[in-house]
Write a structure and sequence with these properties.
Blueprint: H1 2-35, E1 37-43, E2 49-58, E3 62-70, E4 73-79, E5 91-95, H2 104-114, E6 122-131, E7 142-153, E8 156-169, E9 172-182, E10 196-199, E11 202-218
């Protein structure tokens, strides 16, 4: 009797083991894909302002801070499952033709001589990495960290460091990023005008940002 049932029993055990192994193999990729997702944060339609600040000395009033502002900002930042930036999928673009100060005459001069907006209509920032990023920004807390990004002005690209302060607004991320560079860094000629005596070499860039989560993409699929 034992001999009659030994073979069927062995077959049943083998089939059961094979079924369990097959189920484990099906579950494993799902676990990997769950952990291996990317999140895209896009520039929201409102709440974004790019600014530059530079000091000039005018014959009429002396030292004066010029502030140029623009709201035509587009782009996205793609974050991997570990909180790092996916550089090849991330870019922020500012339309230089919309930047404006408190003087139309100055704006026309800057666009034609300094920024040459007809030839270089965009300034781009490609985010590369974070320094000191906590991994997440809890609700009700403000976090400070550094963003490393490739900034391109007039077709010249330089690595830049941005001091970032950010907090949550619902599911969105809002805050301000700031960096400093010199006109020489990007081969920018100094503005020339009759009433302008001097223009400082240092330029400060500020970006009031508002990012909204767009999608979660499973990179394992």
């Amino acid at each position: 009797m034992k001999g009659r049932f030994a073979a069927p029993l062995a077959v049943l055990v083998a089939l059961t083991a094979a079924t369990e192994l097959s189920a484990q193999n099906r579950v494993a990729p799902a676990a990997v894909s769950k952990a291996g997702h990317t999140t895209t944060y896009t520039v929201a339609p409102i709440g974004n302002e790019a600014r530059y600040r530079v000091f000039e000395e005018l014959a009429s009033i002396g030292h004066n801070e010029v502030i140029g502002k623009g709201h035509d900002v587009k782009g996205k930042i793609v974050i991997d499952a570990n909180g790092g930036i996916i550089k090849d999928s991330s870019k922020i673009t500012v339309n230089t033709q919309t930047l404006a100060t408190d003087s139309k005459r100055r704006d026309n001069s800057l666009k034609k001589q300094t920024l040459e907006t007809e030839n270089f209509p965009e300034v781009t920032l490609v985010p590369v990495s974070f320094e000191g990023f906590p991994g997440e920004i809890p609700f009700g807390q403000e976090k400070s960290f550094t963003l490393i990004g490739d900034l391109t002005v007039r077709n010249v690209t330089k690595s830049t460091k941005w001091d970032v302060v950010a907090h949550r607004q619902g599911n969105d991320i809002v805050g301000t990023a700031k960096t400093v560079f010199t006109l020489q860094d990007f081969n920018i000629p100094k503005p020339k005008a009759l009433m302008v005596l001097t223009v400082a070499d240092t330029v400060r860039l500020e970006y009031d940002f508002h990012f909204a989560p767009a999608t979660v993409v499973d990179v394992a699929k």
